[in-house]
Design brief:
- This protein is α+β, with helices and mostly antiparallel strands and 461 residues long.
- Helix content is 34%, strand content 27%.
- The protein has helices at 3-20, 42-61, 78-82, 85-88, 105-111, 122-132, 179-183, 186-192, 238-255, 301-310, 336-347, 382-396, 409-419, 429-434, 455-460; strands at 24-26, 38-40, 66-69, 90-95, 102-104, 150-153, 156-158, 172-174, 199-208, 223-233, 263-267, 277-285, 288-297, 316-318, 323-325, 328-335, 348-353, 356-361, 372-376, 401-403, 423-427, 436-441, 447-451.
- The strands form seven sheets. The chain has a seven-stranded mixed β-sheet, sandwiched between helices. It has a five-stranded mixed β-sheet with strand order 20-19-21-22-23, with helices on both faces. The chain has a three-stranded antiparallel β-sheet with strand order 5-4-6.
- A hairpin with a 6-residue loop joins strand 4 (90-95) and strand 5.
- The protein is globular.
- It starts with a helix and ends with a helix.
- The structure holds glycyl-adenosine-5'-phosphate.
């Protein structure tokens, strides 16, 4: 099979497994779907929570000077004027004149191997599009007949708290990124906790963007979750901090078990005027290397803008150096949904075990939705069922477990392999004699007998 075919095949397998096993469903499916939204099912929500916990541990729990925040999704509309999103948060849009399908111009150019950046000026991207328009066909109707490139604002409007009939004249917005909630609370955190510059604020939360063309499953969504950390630092250490965070964030993925060859750096050349540096960590998704996480040295633009628009002094007095300054920001920003897709891609595997082909999610234990499945060898033997229930209740006090007595034992193993369960615990007739159970390892298929008293230690080690 050619590489491109293999990649499409892998993507289809991941999407199919995600739906079939209850990780991810298309949003509003019974109404025919709703573009750019997906719902996380029973195993999806567990995996998602585990990804968030790993990120939180790395960014808050294991850091001396980073604290958490959960700010409101809907803010005063001035937040988005100050941040520049109301006027400048847009993607380049073209429309097919024949069938009226809308596309992102930079994506159409990318498809004919011409690099375009969504930050290019209108003149630049129109000139580039005009130079290549004869090669660009509409993916829907095949015609090569597009409008000129226009800017399309990605902020989603809402009328929350606005009861006027013409509320669109004075809208507020669903947040386009979670970090604005951090900037507007920087002073509150400084005044109410014991942090001192340099310190960071981390947040996990929903963000909304009116993406022109949501695509590639959960890679580009209209409603998604970001995990962002903003470090507030003195101007003279901004770049030093930035480099330190670049190193930490790359290592984070290696520690999670990602292969180094599936990760790489991409440097942004076309920087927004206030930024000092911007690099992306790219992951090799089934559709190629794409942005997973962005790291940005943002200068003091954000706090300065909010100071100007709110009138609140955002400066910080350094008690040691006696210098007053508006802190600069080093940002790390990653999508939870993109991490989820990267995790499925990285740990999906197929092999042959006991002469049978199987699909297996080789998830690290800390990410696995279910840590152990517990089964009686036979579901129609009350004494086995009663003992298995006892073991199940013992384990589930400490970890996410699943009771699984459906089908024969082989089928149970296949199902648990597909959802990435590291261990299957089976209660058989020997258990009734000597209080031991079999523990089957997902990756090797090897089974060993373990005394029930030692089970917790074996499963958690
Ligand atoms: N505060 C900076 C910021 O929002 P960004 O590069 O626009 O920067 C950061 O977004 C991260 O959020 C991306 O690296 C990606 O992981 C995730 N992200 C952005 N847009 C997304 C979308 N439409 N769907 C899913 N994830 C998205």
């Amino acid at each position: 099979m050619a590489q491109a075919e293999k990649n499409t095949d892998l993507m289809e397998k991941i999407v199919s497994l995600a739906k079939r096993r209850g990780f991810i469903y298309p949003g509003s499916e019974i109404y025919g779907g709703f573009g750019g939204t997906y719902d996380y099912g029973p195993y999806g929500v567990e995996l998602s929570k585990n990804i968030q916990a790993v990120w939180w541990r790395a960014m808050v729990q294991n850091e001396d000077n980073i604290v958490g925040l959960d700010s409101a999704i809907v803010t005063h509309p001035k937040v988005w004027e100050a941040s520049g999103h109301v006027t400048g948060f847009s993607d380049p849009l073209v429309e097919c004149k024949q069938c009226h399908t809308r596309f992102r111009a930079d994506h159409l150019l990318e498809a004919v191997e011409v690099f375009a950046d969504e930050k290019m000026s209108d003149e630049e991207i129109n000139a580039l599009f005009d130079a290549h328009r004869k090669n660009i066909a509409c993916a829907t109707c095949g015609k090569k007949d597009f409008t000129e490139v226009k800017r399309f604002n990605l902020l989603a409007q809402t009328n929350l708290g606005n009861f006027a009939s013409d509320w669109t004249k004075n809208p507020t917005y669903l947040r386009g990124e979670t970090c604005q909630g951090i900037y507007i609370n920087y002073k509150n955190v400084l005044d109410s906790s014991r942090v001192k510059v340099p310190f960071g604020i981390a947040q996990i939360g929903k963000a909304f963007r009116n993406e022109i063309a949501p695509r590639q499953f959960i890679f580009r969504l209209r409603e998604f979750t970001q995990m962002e950390m903003q470090m507030f630092v003195a101007p003279n250490v901004e770049m030093e901090m930035y480099e330190a965070w670049r190193e930490k964030r790359f290592q984070y993925y290696l520690d999670l078990g990602f292969k180094k060859e599936n990760l790489r750096w991409h440097q942004h050349e076309n920087l927004v005027f206030y930024a000092k540096a911007a690099w992306d960590i790219e992951y090799q998704f089934p559709f190629g290397f794409k942005e997973l996480e962005g790291l940005h040295a943002r200068g003091n633009y954000d706090l300065t803008q909010h100071q100007t628009f709110s009138g609140v002094d955002m400066s910080y007095m350094d008690q040691e150096t006696k210098e007053r300054f508006i802190p600069h920001v080093v940002e790390t920003s990653v999508g939870l949904d993109r991490t989820f897709l990267a995790v499925l891609t990285e740990f999906y595997d197929e092999d042959e075990l006991g002469g049978e082909r199987r699909a297996v999610l080789r998830l690290p234990k800390k990410l696995a939705p279910i840590k152990a499945a517990v089964s009686p060898l036979l579901r129609n033997k009350p004494e086995l069922v009663a003992k298995a229930r006892e073991v199940f209740h013992l384990l589930r006090k400490e970890m996410m477990c699943e009771w699984d007595d459906n089908g024969n034992i082989g089928k149970r193993y296949r199902r648990q392999d597909e959802i990435g369960t590291p261990y299957c615990v089976t209660i058989d007739f020997e258990t009734l004699e000597n209080d031991t159970v079999t523990v089957r390892d997902r990756d090797t298929g090897v089974q060993k007998r373990v005394v029930i008293g030692d089970l917790m230690a074996v499963l958690t080690n």
